[in-house]
Amino acid sequence: MMNKDRRHDIDIFSAADRRGIGMLDARDSRGNKNAYVDLLQKLAIEDCYSFSGNETILEYGCGTGRISHWLGDRSARVIAADPEMRLLKIASEKSRHSNVLYVQIEESGFPFAKSAFDVITCIGLFRLVTKSEIHSILSGIKQTLKPGGHLICIDKVYNKKRPEHYTLDEYAEFFSAHGLTKRSVVPIRKGHWIPLYLVFIGFVPRSWFSHLARYELKKRPRQRASSWDYYQYLFHYKIE
């Protein structure tokens, strides 16, 4: 069952996305932080996986299509799946891609053929669902990825265990329980960082975002968040 954080995020973010604010931080009325984090996440994905342009990709938990639109420019076919029709409606209205198909699924459902996908992405999904749902999703991922296929996830991780978030050790257990092979697990963004606040208030020009994101992606693997702060991590696993 969807937890209350997921329902809360859907209510806030769907309204925010209709105003053009984005799915990353609904408080960001200027859109600066959203634009920066969006760019950073996409650069991080490109750093871990080289798109050939021929892939069939599943974005599981696509929300309003922020990532699926981008994937549509880099692959032959994208299936963008989510249980929330109102989010899919927003995604479809914003889409300009004929190779992106939006599909409503049941929560934690996986109604896809075996070995159907070269790549599956889950961005910001696992922190919003229960452990049993994560295992159900990963079971579906293992069945529907082609041999040699890639799983790319980005999610929030705290060093200190919290009821509403999973630790790195818990994520490692989730993936290993389903026989997925780790390619890389790297921190890509610190939750509280002074330059990010400067981005938020508009002090940093958008023309600098790419340089700042590259700096942060290079800097993060050498650091570890404090017990009260969090990182966004990128998890890259593969079916051998």
Plain-language structure description:
- The protein is an alpha/beta fold.
- It has one domain (4-238): 3-Layer(aba) Sandwich (Rossmann fold), CATH 3.40.50.
- The protein has 8 helices and 7 strands, in the order H-H-E-H-E-H-E-E-H-E-H-E-H-H-E.
- The chain has helices spanning 4-18, 32-48, 66-72, 85-94, 131-144, 168-176, 194-200, 209-219; strands spanning 56-60, 77-82, 100-104, 117-123, 145-158, 181-190, 230-238.
- It has a 7-stranded mixed β-sheet, sandwiched between helices.
- Helix 3 (66-72) links the parallel strand 1 (56-60) and strand 2 (77-82).
- It is globular, with a radius of gyration of 17 Å.
- The two termini are 31 Å apart.
- The model is unreliable at 12-22 (pLDDT under 50).
Summarize the structure.
This protein has helices at 4-18, 32-48, 66-72, 85-94, 131-144, 168-176, 194-200, 209-219, and strands at residues 56-60, 77-82, 100-104, 117-123, 145-158, 181-190, 230-238. By secondary structure, the protein is of the alpha/beta class.
Name the features.
single chain, 240 residues, alpha/beta, Rossmann fold, seven-stranded mixed beta sheet
Topology of this structure?
Layout: H1 4-18, H2 32-48, E1 56-60, H3 66-72, E2 77-82, H4 85-94, E3 100-104, E4 117-123, H5 131-144, E5 145-158, H6 168-176, E6 181-190, H7 194-200, H8 209-219, E7 230-238
Helix pairs in contact: 2-7, 2-8
CATH fold group: Rossmann fold
- Oligomeric organization of the protein chains: single chain
Largest sheet: 7 strands, mixed
CATH class: Alpha Beta
- Pattern of helices and strands: HHEHEHEEHEHEHHE
Structural class, judged by helices and strands?
Answer: alpha/beta
CATH architecture field: 3-Layer(aba) Sandwich
Fraction of residues in H or I helices: 25-40%
Count of helix runs: 8
Total beta strands = 7
Report the mean per-residue pLDDT as an integer: 88
